[in-house]
Amino acid sequence: MAHLRKQPVGRMRVRRWGALACLLLAAGGLQPIRGDEPEPKSDSESKNELQDPVQQMQTLEALTKKIGPWEDEARILKDANVYMFQKYGWNTEADRFTLDLINHVADIPPWRMMERETVFVDGLQERYLLSDELRQSVQSDMRRETMTMAFKHFKDIMPMATEMMTTRSNHQPFTAEQVQRWTRMGRPMVRDAFDVIDRIVKKTELKMNDQQRRILRTDLKAYAKRRVDFERMLTRWEAGEWTAEDWGLHNDPYHKSRLAQNAPRFGGLAHDPVASSRPGAGIHPASADESKWDRYVKWFCEFHECDALQRGKAEAILKDLKKQAVDYLNSRRADIEQAERLRTKSDSEAKRRHYASEIQRLRQPIHDLFDQLCSRLERLLTSEQLAKQGPVKPPATLAPGVATSQANRP
């Protein structure tokens, strides 16, 4: 690090801004950007407006250090990254390279930003066989682009980043409402971030040889899938449908304690007198941040004490059937919505019954997919598990088809 001390102060400050932007982008693209409608300011936002940028950065660094030993936080982050890559099927060789690289960066405390940048660019150089000259070009482009973004969005990034770190340093879990607000406000910056990546990739590819381009294009295919999946996640989070599991934080101590407190709301089996005779009967209606199908699979695995292999297969089944359900709903959305409007506007009971029947017919495939989910999950159980807990019946509050409502889609 001696070479860093020799840099002029002005240059070091510019590089620090660029590295900060890289850090915040890597955090997930959920930084606040003002939209058309102003959001209410939190106490941390109001306080930050009274501080200059250097003070805000120092405050953020202090909050990050307050969380606890970085080794512990890095372990949680890396476990979360691994879980997310597994959950969303990001399992190609190119995905594994990305996962290894971001986890390598995560080992370094975020206040040592220049070290993080060096590790990241070192990984790119090794992956794409970059010459020292091309490596320097990529690094310079990254700094320039991220510095531009930092200056453009700094007034909005810092209050939200401070809120995130304040929540974390107070050992509190994030909430669906927070993530919803961050997502809504962060959309413009996400678009800017994608544009930055596209520009740097396009410029770098022109300077590559054929071998380097082949590696890059393979990685871009994996990146394209992750990008599409991420856009879908943003849509759900923007609708308030976020859970700690979405960020791989369900085993994080702060989020795990909240889940334990909410156990009656998510399961309720121990508090329901009929739970012993009808598995799952105590499950309450789905909340706004978790679909009924997700909740049923989670309950199923917990109730039957499924092992890691069974849980993995259950998640795969859920993902497959939810995709089928969502694809079907998207293809018939207009028909369903029209039938619902006509039923609402009908002035006779006969017409209302007719359109209610039509809606039921249109939703029947979703009922069938839910039944398929239940039967496929049951086939995962061993004879010992079946004998111990009995056969599975879909809980009444998760009856097939209820997930087709706008608030609780699969």
How are the elements arranged and paired?
Blueprint: H1 2-5, H2 9-26, H3 43-49, H4 53-66, H5 70-87, H6 93-106, H7 113-128, H8 132-169, H9 176-205, H10 210-238, H11 253-261, H12 263-266, H13 292-303, H14 308-345, H15 349-378, H16 383-389
Biggest sheet overview: none
Domain count: 2
Q: Summarize the helix and strand pattern as letters.
A: HHHHHHHHHHHHHHHH
The coarse overall form would be globular
Summarize this, please?
The chain is an all-alpha fold. The chain has helices spanning 2-5, 9-26, 43-49, 53-66, 70-87, 93-106, 113-128, 132-169, 176-205, 210-238, 253-261, 263-266, 292-303, 308-345, 349-378, 383-389.
Descriptive account of the structure:
With 410 residues, the protein is an all-alpha fold. Helices cover 70% and strands 0% of the residues. The protein folds into two domains: 234 residues, no CATH class; 114 residues. Helix 8 packs antiparallel against helix 9. The longest helix has 38 residues. It is globular and about 75 Å long. The N and C termini lie far apart (51 Å).
